[in-house]
Amino acid sequence: MNGIVVINKECGYTSHDVVAVLRGVLGIKKIGHTGTLDPDACGVLPVCAGFATKVCESLMMQTKEYVATGRLGIVTDTQDIHGTVLATKEFHVSEEEFRAAVSRFVGTIEQLTPMFSARKIDGVKLVDLARRGVTIERSKKTVNVYSIDVLSFDEAGGEYKIRVRCQKGTYIRTICNDIGEALGCGSCMTSLVRTATGKFTLEHSVTIDELRTLRDQGRLSEALIPIDAMYRGCRPVELKVEYLKYIANGNYLEEDWLTPAAEPLKGFEYVYENLLGDREAACVRVYVDGEFFAIYRKKGHRYVPLQMYHEVDNEKNRVRKQESGE
Fold first, then answer.
1. Residues paired with residue 196 on neighbouring β-strands, in sequence order
2. What's the pLDDT tens digit per position in 268-312?
3. DSSP character for 80?
4. Distance between CA atoms of 30 and 103, rounded to whole angstroms?
5. Which residues, including other chains, have CB under 8 Å from residue 43's CB and lie 6 or more apart?
6. Closest by alpha carbon to 39, among 166, 159, 123, 127?
7. Which DSSP state fits 225?
8. What are the C-alpha distances in Å from 127 to residues 16, 78, 111, 138, 295?
9. Which of 49, 57, 45, 51 is nearest to 18 (CA)?
10. CB 278, CB 234: distance < 8 Å
11. Same domain for 214 and 244?
12. Which of 65, 87, 115 lies closest to 181, judged by CA?
């Protein structure tokens, strides 16, 4: 099985838990997720199976969108409501003042990585140190926050809801904490939902239980996004069957071995986002008898492999398989 499943992660699961469960549901070992979600957070978690794991890194770099709720007047060690309360403070904040504080965290900003995080320093996770009561110095990191929309604000209760669009690695609970610091009254995040990763949204996601039901009904394919859907911007071409051995070995392809192909993808326009940047215009999706094999890039009068999405039969892979016992 090769493709992407967009999971609507429920609270209580770690991202690694989801991967472990899906290995059983999908019956495949080679699975990877595309961006960690804390156990107490829920929402969009694209999971790649089989050869689709080759696009994991690209999908991780896509813009993330979150809807978070928070509360003024509370400071915790984890920066969310699930941590130990360090302080409670009175607040008298108008909506105008709140919106002004929020606007300070849009753009290129500096964030201090929270101690309760999976970041490693000298090979040790910060969260493991934090659980032992150890706090160490951390350097700030630069992140890009593209927008923050204030969806609601309750002046009396200090509760708020914001929608954040940002780059990979941005801590939303740190934004909530820092908003509180800017207002002088403290703040913590009370809930978090990732609503989108790139073009993957909640609308097209499934829960683990829903995926199990599809499996039991023999309908798993309905939840599977094919790998080639991620490359809709690349022109589809068909490789003449007599040249199959060349692509099977991961070799170059001559231009006259390829013929234009009708678009084989229907109904997956909603997930497409250019993953190749400026290279996309020179790349093609290569099919053999309608089966997607690889992305090739034009170089002179030939096409050279950019990414292979089948088992390449060459000496390097044969040695690897022999050594690993596959």
1. 65, 201
2. 989 999 999 999 999 999 999 999 999 999 999 999 999 999 887
3. B
4. 42
5. 8, 9, 37, 66, 192, 193, 194, 195, 202, 205
6. 127
7. B
8. 16, 10, 17, 13, 40
9. 45
10. no
11. no
12. 87
CATH number, domain with residue 16: 3.30.2350.10
Nearest to 296 by CA among 287, 288, 286: 286
Domain count, the chain: 3
Identify the sign of the CA torsion 5, 9, 10, 15: positive
Give the end of a domain, one of 188, 223, 258: 223
State the chain's mean pLDDT as an integer. 91
Domain that holds residue 212: 3-62+199-223
**Same-domain check for residues 111 and 256:** no
Has 313 been annotated as catalytic? no
- Same-domain pairing of 305 and 245: yes
pTM recorded for the entire structure? 0.90
206 and 58 share a domain? Answer: yes
Same-domain pairing of 211 and 277: no
Q: Helix (H, G, I), strand (E, B), or coil: what is residue 154?
A: coil
Residue in this structure with the two tokens 């890009």, named with its chain if needed: 144
Does any domain span residue 101?
yes
| pLDDT band at residue 319 using 50, 70 and 90 as cut-offs | very low
Q: How far apart are CA 50 and CA 26, in angstroms?
A: 10
Q: Which of 38, 80, 178, 228 is catalytic?
A: 38
Structural domain includes residue 155: yes
> Is 91 part of any domain?
yes
- Checking if the pLDDT of 198 tops 50, the result is yes
Confidence label for 114 from pLDDT (cuts 50, 70 and 90): confident
Q: Which residue has the tokens 């929309």?
A: 149
**308 and 259 co-located in one domain:** yes
d(CA 56, CA 33): 7
Q: What angle do CA 109, 112, 117 make, to 5 degrees?
A: 125
- Residue 319 in domain: yes
Q: Which residue has the tokens 């809807």?
A: 67
Determine what percent of the chain is predicted with pLDDT higher than 70: 94
